[in-house]
Amino acid sequence: MTEEELATERKAIAREYRALLKNSPRVTTAVDKVLVRKAFDLAVDAHRDTRRKSGEAYIFHPVAVARIVSEEIGLGTTSIVCALLHDVVEDTEISLDDIESLFGERVRSIIDGLTKIKGAQFTENVSIQAENFRKMLLTLSEDVRVILIKLADRLHNMRTLESMRDDKQQKITSETLYLYSPLAHRLGLYNIKSELEDLCLKYKEPEVYGEIELSLTKTKAVRTRFINQITLPIKRQLEKSGFQFEIKSRTKSIYSIYNKMLTKSIPLEEIYDVFAIRIIIESELDQEKSDCWKAYSIVTDFYKPNPDRLRDWISTPKSNGYESLHTTVMSPTGKWVEVQIRTRRMDEIAEMGYAAHWKYKESASEHALDEWISRIRETLQNPNPSALDFIDDFKLNLFSKEIFVFTPKGEIKNLPHSATALDFAFEIHTQVGAKCIGAKLNHKLVPLSTQLKSGDQVEILTSAKQKPKEDWLRFVVTAKAKSNIKGLLKEERKRVAMDGREILSRKMRNLKLENSEANIQKIQSFFRLNSSLELFYQIGKEKLDLSRLSTLKKEKGRLKYRATKRPKSATLQEIVTKIDTKNTNLVIGDSMENLDYKIAHCCNPIPGDNIFGFITVNDGIKIHRQNCPNAIQLMSNYAYRIMKAKWTNTEVISFLAAIRITGIDQVGLVSEVTKVISNEYHVNMRSISFDTDDGIFEGTVRVYVNDTTHLTELMRKLKNIDGVTNVSRIKGEASEPTITDSN
Ligand code: MN
Fold it and tell me: How far is the CA of 86 from the centre of ligand 1 (A)?
């Protein structure tokens, strides 16, 4: 950089610092100001030789974090000082002792906490589950300000993610979605939560993000007209009744719209609650409740409310402090519209958390801060007294990948989403799982395969006669249950095989056959089995007709039998594996080498998909799609095992992709579908299956394609077939709508 550029940069830094001071209403006394200045000077000096990935001087980052802490969360001097210094111990020569001697013990312990969180997440070789993270935050942070500053730090990093490497972006966004946005939600920092989620989507699914953003802009005029129309009579009546108020309409965050499209698999146009109308009333503290209900009565004089959708968070505020009255009413055009009624105070608290709080309790601002902070600590510390409330909150966000269920004694067990009663049984004890015959779910008898929901109380019923079954493996999801069942089945198999061996010995004695290894092997190949264990097992299960053995030739107690050899044709699995391990089609790692890899079967990426490599314990590098349902968890828990990967497309090879086709059942449809596929150049069909139910058919087609272009082209053609209503690519268990119905 030239002298001139450096001078400009110094001016810009000074400008940011002045903005920080100007927008920090809680830095009031001379002592406060001196402290902030001292922290700023120290940070400038400590970071003087470092630059961020974007090229700008590092100091811009801590100043920006300090501004978020002050302006968007509403914290005071201590927090601002800590935000300015949050990276110095980790990244520079300055030690915690230095910090303590300059700023005291309090600041030291907060910075210490911040440094520990940073270390814990990126280096520790453990999977950090929601519960563990919560515990970690608690033990690390004597002071809740640690968490708030960490959130501000993450928000600024997300805002400036652009200059990061692609794989880093994916790591950081996954972690943000998994940990930080749910945390912001828990703390009532609604604006920060929404912004974090939107930024995540922008980096995870840039096309979808752009599409939704564009569509929202395009439909804005129509929406405004509709809102004006519907609010007009309400406005008039509120005025007549002497209210001071403001009516806002708030569009949902792009992320929550996207989530709705995904979970309900409906196109954007069909999401009715893209926006909500908000009535904000100016009201005296002691009049708030009755004023809100008066406004409610005015709204429902004009529009009929849906009684199922009335939410009164004024009488009982949410645990994160949220207060508001929500109702959904029928508009004259037959559309449901959500209306939120709240006072100015409630609105500001809902949007900004504490920043608004102290404004309303100016006289005792420090005290109010303490109150708010101790409330957060309580929320984090003790989910039990209002366990259901706690769970409800968590259902709303990504933590819903986990469920919380209760034992009959009220103990909480953590299980992955879609875990069954049998998983729960194995969670309690291997023997409970092995002997499990059924379960009582909230006191009602249900089968073992029943999927559990958060909040369920589960009691397991056992019987001494029960034996583990092969079938169980179909519906358990936890690794613990799976490996236990497999182990038990193996034991059981051994036991049956021992019986079988006994039976075979007797039979051989009857036939005057030597009980020799050679004879057993001949019998084994006679029945075309792979191992003697398998032979004994089948006999033990009485699945083989041993009387057939008397037809075999023998000589002096030895069997004369030669198995005819049949050439084995390659199985489909072998073909797929062969294709997978061709390693010329993508490059992996920082140096972009041609490493050996396998395609992950949970999401089956094909050239053109955004991908990453994941180093598995036993199976080398697996390539996943970046939007793979497992990816978020992999990336946030095992960030250090993620490798960058990119398609190179140097050679044409085939990849397996699965397509789901749904539509109205009619004659000739299947043949039409197969015709389209076989006519498509570069596409080979591997399997096809169709199911019809009540005039609706659903088909799954597996094809080999070269890349996404071919696949998209094929899907477009399938979509054009008469009777076909939807064509989508299957990714893992969840399906991803790539072509929405345009008819
Ligand atoms: Mn930082």
Answer: 6
One CATH from 3.30.70.260, 1.10.3720.10, 3.30.565.10, 3.40.50.300 for 653-739: 3.30.70.260
In what helix (H) or strand (E) does residue 441 lie, and over which residues does it extend?
strand 436-441
Can you tell me the distance from the alpha carbon of 197 to that of 202, in angstroms, rounded to the nearest whole number?
9
CATH number of 211-360: 3.30.460.10
Q: How far is the CA of 74 from the centre of ligand 1 (A)?
A: 19
Q: Catalytic residue positions?
A: 90-91
CA of 18 to the centre of ligand 1 (A): 20
* Of 636, 643, 601, nearest in space to 731 by CA: 601
- Does the CA dihedral 562-566-567-569 come out positive or negative? negative
180 CA distance to ligand 1 middle (Å): 14
> What is the side-by-side strand order in the sheet with 436-441?
444-446, 436-441, 458-462
pLDDT of the residue at 442: 77
For the four alpha carbons of 55, 57, 62 and 68, in that order, the dihedral sign comes to: negative
Task: Give the tokens for residue 540.
Answer: 């033990």
Highest mean pLDDT among 12-26, 464-478, 728-742: 12-26
Handedness of CA 662, 666, 671, 676 (dihedral sign): negative
Q: What pLDDT does residue 161 have?
A: 93
Quick one: CA dihedral 527, 528, 529, 532, positive or negative?
A: positive
Q: What is the pLDDT of residues 682-709, one digit of tens each?
A: 667 777 777 776 667 788 888 887 777 7
How far is ligand 1, taken at its centre, from the CA of residue 113, in Å?
A: 13
Q: Give the angle 210-216-222 at the CA atoms, nearest 5°.
A: 155
The total number of residues written for the chain in this structure: 743
- The answer to whether residues 54 and 165 touch, using CB atoms and an 8 Å cutoff, is no
pLDDT at 277 over 90: yes
* Residue of 70, 71, 42, 47 lying closest to 59 (CA atoms): 47
